[in-house]
Write a structure and sequence with these properties.
By secondary structure, this protein is an all-alpha fold. The chain folds into two domains: about 45 residues; about 45 residues, no CATH class. It contains four helices and no strands. The longest helix has 27 residues. This is Putative membrane protein. Keywords: Membrane, Transmembrane, Transmembrane helix. It comes from Leifsonia shinshuensis.
């Protein structure tokens, strides 16, 4: 099958009226569209990333809204469970963490 395609390709070039330089510019078509997609995703991806950072992160992970505060609360709870701090210190530090969070969530 490939040999028949290889034999038919020069005939198709001649039938379309192409010359010896007919085939080189066909490589520019995919390169053009690849460039267009890179441009679109580069511009809009940058805008989406900046908007996500302006909102406070990319979700509810460590970099998301209040993800650091929740991780700090979890660490504080682990220290209390291990006996590193007493209940009074735990509650005082927890109150400070929640006051600095900025909302009641």
């Amino acid at each position: 099958m490939f040999s028949s395609l290889a034999a038919a390709a020069p005939c198709a070039v001649v039938a379309w009226g192409g010359g010896p330089w007919f085939g080189w510019w066909w490589f520019l078509i995919p390169l053009f569209w690849i460039g267009v997609f890179f441009l679109i995703f580069g511009v809009f991806g940058r805008r989406w990333r900046r908007a996500a950072v302006a909102r406070g992160g990319y979700g509810w992970g460590p970099n998301g809204p209040h993800g650091g505060t929740r991780a700090a609360e979890q660490t504080l709870a682990e220290r209390y469970a291990n006996g590193d701090i007493d209940e009074k210190e735990y509650r005082a530090r927890l109150e400070v963490l929640r006051a600095n969070r900025g909302d009641s969530a």
